[in-house]
Each structure stands twice: as structure tokens, then as C-alpha cells.
Amino acid sequence: MSRFLAGKAALVTGSTSGIGLAVLKALAGAGANVGMHGLGDPKVIAKLRDEIAAESGAQVAYSAADLRKPAEIREAIKSVAGELGGLDILHNNAGIQFVSPVEVFPEEKWDAIMDVCLNSTFHATKAALPYMIQAGWGRVINTGSMHALVASPYKSAYNAAKHGVAGFTKTLALEVAQKNITVNAICPGYVLTDLVRNQISSTARIRGIPEGSVISDVLLADQPTKQFVRPEDIGAFVLHLCGPNSAAFNGACLSIDGGWTAR
């Protein structure tokens, strides 16, 4: 793989597993030094960092910042940028989910989803932008999900937060359009990550159907390929948005959903 990101530094939130980990590996493979973020077993995370560093030659920083706390987000950006010598690429990827009808949706769950999925995107981006402006180049990529474009029942907080991410993406793209910084949202269909796996049982309970039917008749019902999106495909997509021929991608909410939003 071409190491076209050599000399760049990237931070991916929620990158200890799933989509974020695939993106982190892709960025490191293209030559970027990377900041891993997320929760998990410290021994497992340390092993992942060592493996990525050994495979790519990249420097791998780490932060366990609580994305519900703006002060910790700011400190994470400062710490990772300090360790990596700047911050050129920010992928706001971390997300949480809760499935429930609105009339019984726990308010604390609503607030947590808004903090992690939407508010942290603002706080992290605000803290990262000065590094990009100083460098004269930057890429902000937000994970919007197809739920930034269309809605699904029983996911009111997630739908609202991701629609907010889409609006934030477009607004910021206009603000930095002449600073050699682009801002885009990727909008994946269902990817078989831990976040999606955890929805299967709760959705089965709410709808009163078997878990197998949740996959075929709910999750993949509107995904024409009837296949989950692969994390590796998303990693490749993010690489393109950071590549030498990506400057015209700006303010876009880009579907990678097997045709979900084509209907």
C-alpha cells in the first residue's frame, strides 16, 4: 500500500474495535501515526497497539477519554497531538446505541447518546481544528451512519444525534472550505460490530420476534445486498477521503450502505 499519509497524524475515536479499529489500521498502513481511543481491557488494547505498530511502523498513541466529558475530550486531543507532533486527521467515530419506544425511552440514555454521538463530535473537532489550520491541511471525517439520512423506529436518540452530525458536518465544511480542510460524514449501513450485535437481542424483545429474524427482516431488510458492510470497506473509504485526490469531497454525507438509501 502507498504510504501517502507519511508524516501525518490521525486520531480515531472509538477505535479499539469495529469500524474505528479498521479505520485506524488503514490509516497506519498508509503511513500515518495514529491515536487510538476507546474503552476495553488494558491488556487487549496494549496488544492491539503493539500489533498495529509492528505491522505498519506507525507510532500509536492512546487515550481512554470519556466522551461524555468535554474537558477529557480536550485533554485527549492535546495529549495525542503532543505525542504525535500535531493532528491532521480526526475521525469522530465513537457511538453508542439504545433501542426503545419514545414513551419509555430513559432520559439518561438519551443524554448519553447525544453526548457520545453528537456533542463529542463538536468538542473534539473544535479542539483539533487549530492544529489543522496551523498545518494548512486537515481532514475531519464523521461517522454519520445511514441514520444520518433516514430513520428507523425505536432509535430516536441515535437518529436525532446522527442527523445532527450531518448538519454539523455541512456547516463546518462551509466554514473551513478555503483553509485546505475538508469535512465529510460517512454513512454506513449495518456493520456487524459489537454495537450492532448488542441491538439484536433488544430489538427481538421489543418486536417479539426471533433474533435471526431481526437480522434478516429488520437490520438487513432495507439493505439491498442483504450483506453487512465490512469494516475494511469503510477503512478504504476513509483512506480515499484523506488521499491526494479528495479535495473536492467537502460537506458531503456519503453513503456506504449496500444501496439502503437508494430507495
UniProtKB/TrEMBL annotation:
Cite the InterPro entries for this sequence: 3-OHbutyrate_DH, NAD(P)-bd_dom_sf, Sc_DH/Rdtase_CS, SDR, SDR_fam
As recorded in UniProt, its EC number(s) are 1.1.1.100
- SUPFAM superfamilies the UniProt entry points to: NAD(P)-binding Rossmann-fold domains (SSF51735)
Q: Which pathway?
A: Lipid metabolism; fatty acid biosynthesis
Report which reactions are catalysed by this protein.
a (3R)-hydroxyacyl-[ACP] + NADP(+) = a 3-oxoacyl-[ACP] + NADPH + H(+)
Q: Name one Pfam family in it.
A: adh_short
Q: Which NCBIfam families match?
A: PHB_DH (TIGR01963), PRK12429.1 (NF009093)
| Protein family | Belongs to the short-chain dehydrogenases/reductases (SDR) family.
Q: What is this protein called?
A: 3-oxoacyl-[acyl-carrier-protein] reductase
Source organism of the structure = Dunaliella salina
